[in-house]
Design brief:
The structure holds two protein chains of two kinds. Chain A is mainly β. Chain A is built from no helices and nine strands. The radius of gyration of chain A is 13 Å and the shape is globular. Helices cover 0% and strands 50% of the residues of chain B. Classes of the chains: A mainly beta, B mainly beta.
């Protein structure tokens, strides 16, 4: 079973920051937080991952709370092409599989 | 485009027929994974290879399913005697060692 809890769906206005929350209260010390997204009819796309420090790349920022029990994925300037299902996953780096939950369906509104 | 390619992108077959899908991973990636995704659900792990060795198989992978990666490069997933319940998107991913997995576009299978 997935070890994360995410809202089923969210809306965000185009051009605004999209903040997607994720709870992972049972995360272990050696487990990373990964984010993937899946645009309709495509394969999942890797976004970002982190252990305990905040991370930023060209796609997004990942903010992990100090106790590591929750995190937020931030898309700084959402566009219509960011409409997708976003999956928050915890896994030990090097694990052979990803266990996906149902994710958050993000709708970017024009 | 992640660099992982899958062929075909769509396959329609009749119940009882055999089908085979191909995945070409990113060239330097030594790990290759297969997942299955049904409508409204997240992808589910089926099996993975490190180089040519198949190291784990999910209990979702019934005896009718077989996967190979003969030279540690491309992989094939075969389903024998297809059933309507096999209708799904079949996803392939690859990674370099313990790094992030990069997914292909998937093969959508419809069993009539």
């Amino acid at each position: 079973d997935a070890k994360t809890t995410q809202p089923t769906s969210m809306d965000c206005a185009e051009g605004r920051a999209a903040n997607l929350p994720c709870n992972h209260s049972t995360i272990s010390g050696n487990e990373y937080v990964y984010w993937y997204r899946q645009i309709h009819s495509q394969g999942p796309q890797y976004i970002i991952h982190g252990l305990k420090n905040n991370e930023t790349n060209e796609m997004a920022s990942l903010i992990i709370t100090e106790d590591r029990k929750s995190s937020t994925l931030i898309l700084p300037h959402a566009t219509l092409r960011d409409t997708a299902v976003y999956y928050c996953i915890v896994r030990v780096e090097g694990d052979d599989k990803i266990i996906f939950g149902k994710g958050t369906r993000l709708h970017i509104l024009p | 485009d992640t660099g992982v390619s899958q062929d075909p992108r769509h396959k329609i077959t009749k119940r009882g027929q055999n089908v085979t899908f191909r995945c070409d991973p990113i060239s330097e990636h030594n790990r290759l994974y297969w997942y299955r995704q049904t409508l409204g659900q997240g992808p589910e792990f089926l099996t993975y290879f490190q180089n040519e060795a198949q190291l784990e198989k999910s209990r979702l992978l019934s005896d009718r399913f077989s996967a190979e990666r003969p030279k540690g490069s491309f992989s094939t997933l075969e389903i024998q005697r297809t059933e309507q319940g096999d209708s799904a998107m079949y996803l392939c991913a690859s990674s370099l060692g313990q790094g992030a997995q990069y997914f292909g576009p998937g093969t959508r299978l419809t069993v009539l």
